[in-house]
Fold each of these.
Amino acid sequence: NWGDNTGLDSLNVDSETPIGQNTSTIKRIWRARHTFPGPGSYSVRVEDPNRNGGVDNIDNSVNVPFVIETLLRISPFASQQNNSVVLRNDPVDIACTGATYVYNPGAIDFDGDSVAYALAESKGVGGQSAPGYTFPPASNSITVNPLNGDLVWDQPNVAGLYNVAMTIKEYRNGVLISEVLRDLQIRVSPGCNNQPPVIQVDESVCVDAGATLSVPIRVTDQDIVDDITISATGEVLEPPINN
């Protein structure tokens, strides 16, 4: 649904890629081109007919559409081009009962606009809240840091499969110009015998343009038999994007 009273019934899949820690989870990409009638605000929404079954905080989830959407604002001033935020971290993950869980979408804004985050409900038909939706149960709280996008679940107390969403809002000169909904699925396992690794790295570093930056990273893990790999996402690692 393009948000201008037009839409498409279907699209061909452009690519498929396994993601997450379970290779049965697939990221699919569809591509389409659309010309809007003129300046204005448009809610671009995709509805996939069925979520997977067994989601504990959505009633009869297998019969509820999976919905994501973007608020697109087209300026009457042609020079004010904009790219929506790009989310680099996969929206599937695993948590453990009794342990604080943290997720970050890895949002990148190539235009240098301000980005703010908020907790949101998963959506269903027509962009309405999914039937029977409740936020996942927590020993203390489940929150989203509005500045850095960390979703902190303190702490999952019931094993199961849960969905939670967040909105990523993009501001330019204090004006909202775009908004993206991310829907995240988290599988909570009971009593995991694992401690997360501790990452030690300077959070803020200055470097002169054109100079080489070398940042030491130290990772330690209490579970000494575990193998550790380190990867990174971020705007400095991304190639330039064309508007």
Note: The first strand starts at residue 13 and ends at 18.
Amino acid sequence: MRILIVGSGNYVTGRGTDSYGTILPAIYEFNKEKKIVDEVVILTTSKKSAKLAEKKNKKIRYLSGHNLGVKIVVKKKNNFKFSTNHAYSRDGIFCTIIATPDHTHYKLAKDCLKNKQHCLVVKPVVTKLSELKNLIKLCKKNQVYGAVEFHKRFDRQARILKDKYDSGIIGDPLYSWSEYSQKKIVPEKFFKSWISKNNVFQYLGIHYVDLIRYITNSEPKKVIAIGQKNYLKGKNINTPDSIQTIIEWQNPQGISFTQTLLLNWVDPKNTTAMSDQNFKLVGTKGRIESDQKNRGVRIVEEGSYIEDINPDFCRVYGTTPGKIRWEGYGIESVKTFLKDIILIKKNKSLLKSLDEVRPTFKEALYSTAVLEAANYSLLNNSVWKKVKI
């Protein structure tokens, strides 16, 4: 099995941080279990990023105690070619994981699917419904699997929320409310080179849009979004500091309810967690609440500030090099994709059933439709925008 990763940034290797990312550690953990990955090829855009990726990979290999063959290839920007020279498909399964800026996803995913490669794309898969529909057609034509890395679906809290909702304990849904924010280092440092083509709803809010779809199986009907440009504008960064969005949904029983999302990515750098997030779903009989920041583990170190850590997303467990493990719902998301394509190879009929249980490209129609409508609203004086899929 050979795996191609397009991109080598923070989510792949932890570049720019003291951590090691999620995607590459997940593949190490997957291969320690399955022992079927022959090679991982990482495509990046500069010699500098390649060197940083290699440095991170060496550390991950040392900590994992597992020798995974990783090859790093430098390709010029906007020139990623999925040719037979890079397919490495002469043996076993081949798949691609795309972890690049949002505006590059469509072309990369299209090239991948045309070459009949299974594909996992970090969220959002694309920002336009027309593009996503084209990708879905390619998946069907070439009998390949397209999935979105919506890792919150694998969070134990989200799974509990879905189980409780399905049991009917809250009655008919009335409204959902979430506040989700991250440190200003994200737009100022991690995304600075392409920040004008992104916004905080696209980056953070899309997770909770997908969660409502996952939990309630509802369809979006209309969207309104309001944004503010204050702090980042003063840093010559052209994107809103904060966006507030209201979405009207309708569940399969025809009952309408609203979702409110309050988002920002200008939290202070010394706040106690990278992500401050929570989720509420209120109905006619009860409510479900999930505090996804305060998960019960707080670290206080002398000479440092207090840190509320998330032990469930992507954490290193263990302290002895060669014996540690990466665990969490971020890891599980990537591993599940890889396990799915092994099953698909054995039984292609599985492709038809994945839409019911995974965040496939087809399932992403709902979140993409909301994203497109929210972006339209932001650019048009915050008007209500009807959603059509």
Note: Residues 101 and 194 are 7 Å apart (CA to CA).
